[in-house]
Amino acid sequence: xxxxxxxxxxxxxxxxFSWGHLVKEAIxxxxxxxxxxxxxxxxxxxxxxxxxxxxIPLKIMHRLSTHLAAVDFSWRTRVGAGIAxxxxxxxVVNPGARIGxxxxxxxxxxxxxxxxxxxxxxxxxxYPVIEDEVWIGPHAIIVGGVTIGRGSRIAGGTFITExxxxxxxxxxxxxxxxxxxxxxxxxxxxxx
Length: 192
Fold this sequence. Notes:
17 strands, alpha/beta, Serine acetyltransferase, Ser_O-AcTrfase, 2 domains, 29% helix, repeat, 23% strand, single chain
């Protein structure tokens, strides 16, 4: 599965897939390198036996690539095919978050957890779910057990603590739906 995801990620980055594009972008694009090392770590972790031993050096490579890109993006995060990280500086994605296919994340985006204390005194930890074809603008913050519906667009600087219906445009702090039935904004959508 990781090979198909890498092909889709490369398609989002370059508008088409080729091994040459994948290698060139992995070397020259600091944000794409994060995606490649994440996929390689996930592939190694899924392999039994000897190939799993490559996970240790791959985790080191991923750590270095996230450091050089100035992002906090765990290799354990469940990410669909065709992720696009634009600019990336300051991006923070909690490992518990789930990200769908053809999602675009801009710099400063935070996908974080939220802890709640239930009436019986137990702690509940929640993580966001980002569905397919979602566009998240610069410095948007999405926390807790919320779902961002398919094809939605989250404006820069928006603070979201409640779920967003599919195909919505959301803006503000606190967040407000400013338009329903919007068209998804996916540049170079990966054919899935």
